[in-house]
Specification:
By secondary structure, the chain is of the alpha/beta class. It is built from 7 helices and 5 strands; from the N terminus they run βαβαβααβααβα.
Amino acid sequence: MLIIEGSDALGKTTLAKKIVDKMMEKGYSTIYSHMGRPNEQIFDFFWNYKKMINPCFVMDRFHLGGLAYHYNKITPQQLQIINAWIRSVGGLIVVLYGADEEWYEHRIREDKRGNLLPIVKLLDGNLIFKKYAKNNDCDFSFNILPYGFPEENFVSDYNVDKLIDEWINRRQLLDI
């Protein structure tokens, strides 16, 4: 399972789809999946994640959204366990964030697709993803910069290949 996390309009879907295409070219069974924002009234922010773990998935959003957008739904101990479940199937956690908050706010205000959440919530979420990445709690992180978005930024063949190579190595170690 390769999980790509981050706030809106940072290129998660672009990166996920590029990884799926390259993995399929290499002959690996890979499935793109996008996790919408769960309904807090019915979603179990611990056990439901375990049910969704699949070593062949490239997940566009997953459990870290529970930290960024659903306050107090995941404890630090639960987060450690969820991360362990992910890594038990050779999983990688990749976090995208915008360190330039002014640029990021402009980016989401100009995004023609619109936002499902209020801008202030997206900005707060971005700060949570940034903090998570800076604490080295993920396998890879990319600061999305205000120039060259997104191709020249992080979805380069070099970065995609680096992620794929690490994911393949982990899967092979576990014979997945």
